[in-house]
Write a structure and sequence with these properties.
The protein has 351 residues and is of the alpha/beta class.
Length: 351
């Protein structure tokens, strides 16, 4: 498995704390000042990166309202809207990108985007983005993935509904371009996503099956799924972000507010630190506690020549005597000297 990938000045990998990406999506509601405030809030909350989406409604779909082009799923946040009108509402103006990227960089954040067509890749290349994200609904668009991979920059891919074969195909497309810098994101393409549909054990399988770094693109309503993903080895967490859910935004319902993003950044680092490594025998900080284990002690005064028995030795705390595994072997042994009550039993005291 890939050990590390460089995203700008950041290193991504299992030995680095989880990389937190705040997805702005269309929650800026077409207000540039709001978009800037979102970036500032993401930086204060402890995110490592902000991500935009680079498209226009015309590069996404056709301006039609026939059944094929309508959001018809019962319960969808966008039920009844045409795809074109939804993308027109959510799109981030291309003329904002450069200044938003610079704003993010000035605050120490990595800034990148998801392109949705080849022209968007060319545009983002003109802004020298450090990496690219392929959205889950585009992970079968192999021509787009090839275009991105040919830049030679890291490619982050939401696997969404992709089958094992489709993931193999997209990876082969990237690798055939000579690009091995890939992070796969486990993703549930449901908005919002139910935790029961996360199937996070897939993260472990993805690591082994595909040999890449694996992260999580999470659309659930809190941080629980993300924390569990980090415990399983997720090196990156992407969450949609909004300043105030009540103020609206196309993705507001499943987006984190600043305080929640702050908790995500802090708690994922705690979980990452707790993952540690395979460790038996106690840590360095535990060594002092070993004295509180049980061991064999004299529970009564024992005279030289006296036999050790259940009446004069016991297994008790602390742990300075012989380990309890020797207790039966000690019974019947003879003291070669007087042994006061409270003495830890050692072989040197016995004949």
């Amino acid at each position: 498995m890939s050990q590390n990938i460089k995203l700008g000045s950041h290193s991504i990998g299992l030995e680095h704390k989880p990389f937190i990406v705040a997805e702005l999506s269309g929650n800026h509601q077409k207000s540039y000042p709001l978009a800037e405030r979102m970036i500032e809030a993401a930086a204060r909350a402890g995110a490592h990166a902000v991500k935009l989406q680079t498209y226009t409604p015309d590069t996404m779909t056709l301006d039609m309202d026939t059944d094929d082009f309508m959001v018809s799923e019962q319960g969808s946040l966008w039920q009844g809207e045409s795809l074109y009108s939804l993308y027109a509402k959510a799109a981030t103006p291309w003329e904002w990108h450069e200044s938003l990227f610079k704003k993010a960089q000035s605050l120490g954040l990595l800034a990148f985007s998801s392109p949705f067509d080849p022209g968007a890749v060319d545009f983002l290349e003109s802004l020298d983005v450090p990496c690219y994200k392929i959205a889950s609904f585009e992970n079968t668009d192999l021509p787009l993935i090839e275009k991105v991979a040919q830049t030679g920059k890291p490619v982050i891919v939401s696997t969404g509904m992709a089958s094992e074969q489709e993931i193999e195909e997209l990876l082969n497309t990237i690798y055939e371009c000579g690009n091995r810098q890939v992070v796969l994101l486990k993703c549930t393409s449901q908005y919002p996503a139910d935790a029961a549909d996360a199937h996070l054990l897939t993260i472990l399988d993805m690591q082994q099956r595909f040999g890449t770094l694996v992260g999580l693109s999470d659309h659930s309503l809190n941080n629980s799924v993300a924390l569990a993903a980090v415990a399983l080895g997720s090196c990156m967490i992407e969450k949609h972000f909004v300043l105030d859910r009540q103020a609206g935004g196309v993705d507001a319902e499943f987006s984190l507010e600043p305080e929640e993003l702050k908790q995500l950044a802090e708690e994922t680092e705690t979980v990452w630190r707790a993952r540690g490594k395979v460790q038996y025998g106690g840590t360095l900080n535990e060594q002092a506690s070993k004295k509180y284990r049980r061991s064999v002690y004299c529970s009564k005064d024992i005279k030289a020549g006296e036999t050790l028995s259940e009446q004069n030795i016991r297994i008790i705390r602390p742990g300075f005597g012989l380990p309890p595994k020797y207790y039966k072997e000690l019974l019947g042994r003879t003291a070669q000297q007087d042994i006061p009550r409270g003495t830890p039993v050692s072989w040197e005291l016995l004949e």
